[in-house]
Amino acid sequence: MQTLVFSAINGFISVSYLIIGLLMMIPFLRGQLKTPLVLATILVFFSCALGHGAHAVLMGSAMPHLPSSWLNAQIGIDLTTAMIAATYIRLRRSYSFLIDGPLLLTQTQNQLAQANAELERVNINLEQLVQARTAELSAINQQLEQEIRDRTLAETALQNREAQLHSINTVVPGVIYQYRIDLDTGNQRFDYLSPGTIALFEREPAAMQSITAIEDLFHPDDFRQIQASVSLSVRDRTRWHDEFRIRTSSGVEKWVRGIAEPMESPPGVAIYSGIFLDVSDRKQAEAALAASERQFRGIVENANDLIFALRAEDLHISYISPQFADFWGYAPDEFIGQSFAPLIHPDDLGICVAEVQALLQTGEKYAGLEFRIVQKSGAVRWVTSNKTPVFDASGRMIEIQGILRDITDRKQAEIQLQQQTCDLQKAIADLQQAQLQLVQREKMSSLGKLVAGIAHEINNPVGFISGNLTPANEYVEGLMQLLALYQQHYPEPPAKIAHTIEQIDLDFITYDLPRLLDSMRVGADRIQKIVLSLRNFSRMDESDKKIVDLHEGIDSTLLILQSQLKATGRQQAIEIIKDYSELPPIECYAGQLNQVFMNLLTNAIDALGDRRRSSDVLPQILIRTRHSDFDQVTIEITDNGAGIPLEIQPQIFDPFFTTKPVGAGTGLGLAISYQIMEKHQGALTCASRLGQGTTFRIDLPLQAAFCRLVAV
């Protein structure tokens, strides 16, 4: 039993040595513990594990009566193990080449590479530090050089500044000073006085250091005032300023303005820096200005016109002269600081505000605005105003000053004059209209008489011809029948008759003579129609209005103008396009409407002059008639001529206005036509586009209480 226990213990120890050796061998193989001592230790543990393992085997296989040879073998194994371990430890230097040589070659190379990299990094860092330090030293050096240059420039500028200040102190119109007051003792003195004391006080600066040395300069009436203002400024540590009089040694009295600012001072001391200025000229100017203001105020208050002033920021009244009460019936104090809007007539307020706004924007004077005002009693007066902007020293507008003048009497006279002018213009217009009517009447009367005479003279022979054509036709037919019988019964006439028949071409005469008579009848009928058209156009046989067919009047006018519509020489014929609608008969003065048609168609023909000489466009006149739903008829006469310029279209119905050459037109045609349409309670309008043509439109009521016209 004891033998088994010893065998188990040796086996456990063997396994423990083996495990420890393996655990140490793992980091050794990884290169973490590659030293001769570690290798020797690993070999010792492996040897011990082998020895104890052999010892456990021997003891485990022993019998109860173990021979002495087995025991000796066990002791030999233990001694051998100890000797091997000691030998491993002792010979560690002999086999250290396994560590330092091939086994540690990789580790050594890695360490060498790491050392080189570290050395290179250290070198780079060192170079960077050297460069940074060099740059820093260079920047410091440049900064020092710049500071030296700046100091040099500052010293030069300071010297220049001192020279400038000395020059300024020499030429400045006044005395620059520094004043010191000991608050504990009350002593006062000047620390510095510029050379200007000689000109202002007639004393050297050194003679004015003590305040007691200059007390005799101050005017007796102003000395207490100066002391009080200085004491107040010292007490409150505020800016000191005062104006006072001095008397110089030469007996000259001057006004002096003193200004001083408190400076940082040690405790118990008040130091001021300031300037004394001679303001005698300004004081004299102020006195003169005050006198002038009193004089001006007297003039303003006694003037008949109203003087006023408006604040630029809000346009409220800042001043009004006493005449305000005469203009509006209010006391001036009632509107000081108020808007002027309630004083203006509501219908004129807009133009007043607009002019004031324009003045504010342009900064220019405005004059001559006329508007109405409303008095306290409600009465309305007319005034005219002149306004001028007032600017401060910086150029900013601060006030608007102006003057108002009552022009009510003048306005009333102007109104009367305007009424008289209107009456005169109306009388002139009536005279011109009467003149036009007279011209038109004489013209139409002469034309009517001429047309009636021509029609009468033509109508008599034409009637004679037309009346004889019927029996003449019968006679010719009888003769033709007789000739036919002769030819039938005497087919072979004598030679002389045959020769005459051949010479006069009896067959052609027989064929053409009836046609000649028919042509004469057609010509006579046409002449009768022309005569009828002339009578229809002139209407000389009608002295009162009549229900007529407008289309008949238009066609009669076209018939009269037929010769002007035909092609002549290098001019094309004008194409007449009729777009007639069915029109009811209309009550009118037919002769006058025919005159309107004549004028409009003549103008259309004249407008097509350039078109007729060009082959690019066919000249046309479109006549369109319509019956509207408002119990009126519309007649439009449109040409495709050059059109009427827009700027002269409003003048085309004015009397004596014409665009035709001298001698080619009187300028009365459209004016007369316009009046004729007005007296028919109709309308004549024009619509034209340049380059596209012109349309004249006639709007005529079907029934109207026409004025009885004197003309034609």
Residue ranges: pLDDT <50 for 5 or more in a row?
Answer: 95-104, 705-712
Strand order of the largest sheet: 2-1-5-4-3
| Helix content percent band | 40-55%
Number of strands: 17
Shape: flat
Distance between the termini: 176 Å
How much of the sequence lies in strands comes to: 15-25%
* Structure classification: alpha+beta
Radius of gyration: 69 Å
Largest sheet, strands/sense/barrel: 5 strands, antiparallel
Name some characteristics of this structure:
54% helix; 712 residues; alpha+beta; five-stranded antiparallel sheet; 18% strand
Tell me about this structure.
The protein is an alpha+beta fold and 712 residues long. The chain contains 17 helices and 17 strands. It has helices at residues 2-30, 36-61, 68-90, 97-171, 197-201, 223-236, 280-302, 324-328, 349-362, 408-489, 495-504, 506-538, 550-560, 562-565, 590-607, 609-612, 669-679; strands spanning 175-182, 188-193, 240-247, 253-262, 269-278, 306-311, 317-320, 366-374, 380-391, 397-406, 546-548, 575-579, 586-588, 620-627, 632-639, 683-689, 693-701. The strands form four sheets. A five-stranded antiparallel β-sheet has the order 2-1-5-4-3. Strands 7-6-10-9-8 form a five-stranded antiparallel β-sheet, sandwiched between helices. Strands 12-14-15-17-16 form a five-stranded mixed β-sheet. The chain is flat, with a radius of gyration of 69 Å.
